[in-house]
Amino acid sequence: MQVVERKQAVKKVKLTSLSYNSDLNAVAQDVVDKCKLVSQSKLPMVVRCLEDIMQRNQRGGRSDEDFQEWDDQFNSNKRSEMDRFVGEQQFQLDGVSLDNLDSYLEMLYEDSMEEKIKGTSFILQLARDPDNLEHLSTNEQFLGALTRIFREEAKKSMDLVINVVYIFFSFSNFSAFHQNMTEYKMGDMVMKVIELETKRDALRKEELQVKLKTLGREEQEREQKKLRATEKKQDKLLFVCFHVLMNLAEDITIERKMKKRKITSLLVQVPQCCR
Q1: pLDDT per residue as tens digits for the range 198-251
Q2: Superfamily per CATH, domain 84-273
Q3: Domains of the chain, residue spans
Q4: Of 9, 35, 269, 274, which residue is the least packed, with the fewest Cβ within 10 Å?
C-alpha cells in the first residue's frame, strides 16, 4: 500500500497488493495497520469497501466525475451532520489556524465567559479537521487547559460545554486517541455532564410549574418558550455526550465502567428530558 496523494482531511492510497486473487481480509488488515486513524474495529468496513472496489472494477470502473460526485456528496453529508451538532457559531471563525493555538488557549484564561466560549469555538474548528488531531493529542498544554476549563466552568455555560464536548467527540471518532481521553478522564467528565443535565431538567420543569401559577397568559407563554429553547440546546449537548461515550465503549473495560455508573438508567431518563 502506497500513499499517492494527501490533502486536508483526505488520504488517498494505492492498493498495490489488490487483485482478483487477493485475500481481502489480509489487504484490509494492511490498510488498518498503516493508517493510524482507521481503528481495528473498522476492519469489516474496510473489507466491504474493498469488495465494492472489486465489483466496480468488474463493471468497468468509474470515471473521475463519478468519484468527484461521491466526494461532494460525502462532504455535504459530513457538513450537515456537523451543523446538527454544533449549529451556527456566534463568532467569525474565518482564518482559524493551528499556528494560532496558543492565542486560542489564552482566551480560556480570560475572565469573560464570552472570550472563553470564543476560544473553545476556535479550537473546535481545529478539531473538526482530522489532520490537526494528532498534533492536538500530543500537546499537553492544550489537553490540560481544555480539561481544566471543562471541570471549572461546565456548570456556568452550556455553550461552552457543547463546544468542549464536541472537541471530545472529534477525538473519540478515532481509537488512536482513546488512551489520551482516558488519561485526561474525558469520559468521566462527559458522564458527569449527563448526570447534571438530567437533574437540571427535572428541577427546571418543577420550578416552571410553580412559577406558571403566578403569571399571566403572556408571561406563561414567554417562560415556556424560554424553556423550549433551553431544552433544544440541552438536547444537542446530550446527543453529542452519548456519541462520545458510545465511541469510547469500543473498549469493553470502559463499557463496564459505564454500566457501573448506571448509564442504562441515564439512557432511560434522557428521552423524558429531551422530547
Answers
A1: 888 888 888 888 887 787 888 888 888 888 888 888 888 898 999 999 999 988
A2: Leucine-rich Repeat Variant (1.25.10.10)
A3: 2-61, 84-273
A4: 9
